[in-house]
Amino acid sequence: MSRNWMIYGANGYTGELIARKAVQIGMIPVLAGRSFDKIKPLANELALEARIFSLEDSNEVKKNLGDIDLVIHCAGPFSITSAQMIEGCLAAGTHYLDITGEAEVFEHTHSSELAGRAERARVVLCSGVGFDVIPTDCTALKLKEMMPDATHLSLGFQSDSGVSPGTYKTMIQGLATGSLERLEGRLTPFPLGTKHRKIDFGKGPQTAMAIPWGDVSTAFYTTGIPNINTWIPMSAIMIRGARIMQLLRPLLGNTAIQGLLKKMVEKKISGPDELSRGRTPAYIWGEARNEKGDILTARIQTANVYSLTADGALAVAKRLLDQSNIDGGSWTPAGLFGADFIEELPGSGKFELS
Ligand SMILES: NC(=O)c1ccc[n+]([C@@H]2O[C@H](COP(=O)([O-])OP(=O)(O)OC[C@H]3O[C@@H](n4cnc5c(N)ncnc54)[C@H](OP(=O)(O)O)[C@@H]3O)[C@@H](O)[C@H]2O)c1
Hints:
Number of domains: 2
Radius of gyration: 20 Å
Strand content: 15-25%
Number of helices: 15
Shape: globular
CATH topology of the largest domain: Dihydrodipicolinate Reductase, domain 2
Distance between the termini: 45 Å
Largest sheet: 7 strands, parallel
Bound molecules: NADP nicotinamide-adenine-dinucleotide phosphate
């Protein structure tokens, strides 16, 4: 039986990428979003159904999801849009996937209240079915399986992928907050630029800085490891720059300045093209440590950030649509499909452990 599913925010850079790949592999989504002028031409071109609705009216959301089995929610920043879509999905009995990387959104998706409601409604809520967090989440689970007594987990990635408009806007949205790590099970803020170390992500040792990547939230739900931090390569001068930026935080959180920066992104940023996506793989690194001081490292090469986001989101959607009997609740990608899920995605290598 063919099942109805939807991409919401289908006209955005990533939503459109997912829509086009879906059609290439024979999947038939309904394309949805809030702007008729942007959604309808794409739906016409791909010969797909279009639905136009805003997330602001909960009745409209529920009505439009009534015959939909699964949504891939691509309209970010998700701190602004996710809660409304999740409510619609719970009311309509629709599985919810999104491509967020925002820790506060993961925390909301995994709140015990939502997890309980999703379980009772037999609905899957799975945030982060893109580059953030599929590869790092699978790396976290691989390390936990190989070192069950791990107490500390570090995860990171290196990529020259280029950045999409929505990713920039989401980064602007987060400018007013600092960095984040998990300490003894609790999310704990600290000033950006104050934690650095050397890491070999897969291309030789480099200076790296701790950043608030979504795994500080999700890897805890996947592994139960209580201490988690997340890293990207960063030159010493950029780390100093990040510390200086912290002083501007009150200014960067100002609504008018945020609006100005987001308008600039809309005018100037279009996101990496197909050629550039094909040339820029990503390198994932993870390190687990136990009380005895043993250290285990995992590395895996993957496809470009945006290619992996499209392939990963579609792979999760396809598996859920193909399964008739699945436990509802709040899930992480590796929690749903295991550590080796990343190795099955196009462009991925195999885990290397040392
Ligand atoms: N997990 C990952 O690795 C990963 C990868 C890629 C992207 N992302 C995230 O995905 C999000 C989208 O990125 P993008 O570059 O594709 O963005 P984009 O090109 O700016 O597109 C954003 C989409 O969201 C819609 N939208 C924004 N705010 C909305 C609201 N309040 N209500 C309804 N629709 C709304 C936009 O609709 P209009 O055009 O009508 O404004 C558009 O369809 C960002 O948060 C980004 O960080 C994550």
